[in-house]
Design goal:
The complex is a heterodimer of chains A (116) and B (112). Chain A is an all-beta fold and 116 residues long. Chain A has no helices and twelve strands. Classes of the chains: A mainly beta (116), B mainly beta (112).
């Protein structure tokens, strides 16, 4: 069965610190997608990244970077030089070929608090 | 702006009321979704519609009744709800098959 685990419930950092959010997933499918979403206090989930199971290349987008390692079933997210505006709940999610890739399974989220 | 709107943003209803949540997407997508987000629980997929046809009902109680008249609009009709149904209800849309889903701001529902 598919499962996403975000063991960190809440992380507090001071502005300009780097922070890594962990995500571990379980799936029997060899073809799947992994996602990260950001949920600010307004409630709307904001899409950040999608990565397919055949592409283990790490990705960097500005201050954001993602490390995908199939060997450890992890898809970790790092924010470099954090800012107050990064404060939000971050969700990791998984979809599998077996469900037509439409059934997103989410982790429980990690609340990030960035203080000035 | 993600191009997915939801109304109302907040709703308080009694257990005997009937109300509807509305979602509209302006992204040209052909799949729409309803999710439920309760406190301290993972986001739960409720329903999936592809090209207006329901393709997934994730064991949702019949007091929740979805409707998708076209690829741009999705409704969730609510009747005789329970207090435990209080949650944030999120609508999303995507192209089918593996593409990222774009979410609306949600409707915060409180059942009294």
């Amino acid at each position: 069965a598919q499962k996403v685990t975000q063991a960190q419930t809440e992380i507090s950092v001071v502005e300009k610190e780097d922070v890594t959010l962990d995500c571990v997933y379980e799936t029997r499918d060899t073809t799947y997608y992994l996602f990260w979403y950001k949920q600010p206090p307004s409630g709307e989930l904001v899409f950040l990244i999608r990565r397919n199971s055949f592409d283990e290349q790490n990705e960097i987008s500005g201050r954001y970077s993602w490390n995908f390692q199939k060997s450890t079933s992890s898809f970790n997210f790092t924010i470099t030089a954090s800012q107050v505006v990064d404060s939000a709940v971050y969700f990791c999610a998984l979809s599998e070929a077996g469900t037509g890739f439409q059934k997103l399974v989410f982790g429980t989220g990690t609340r990030l608090l960035v203080s000035p | 702006e993600t191009g997915v709107t939801q109304t109302p943003r907040h709703l308080v209803m009694g257990m005997t009321n009937k109300k509807s949540l509305k979602c509209e997407q302006h992204l040209g997508h052909n799949a729409m979704y309803w999710y439920k987000q309760s406190a301290k629980k993972p986001l739960e997929l409720m329903f999936v519609y592809n090209f207006k046809e329901q393709t997934e009902n994730n064991s949702v109680p019949s007091r929740f009744s979805p409707e998708c008249p076209n690829s741009s609009h999705l409704f969730l009709h609510l009747h005789t709800l329970q207090p435990e149904d209080s949650a944030l209800y999120l609508c999303a849309s995507s192209q089918v098959q593996g593409h990222e889903q774009y979410f609306g701001p949600g409707t915060r529902l409180t059942v009294t």
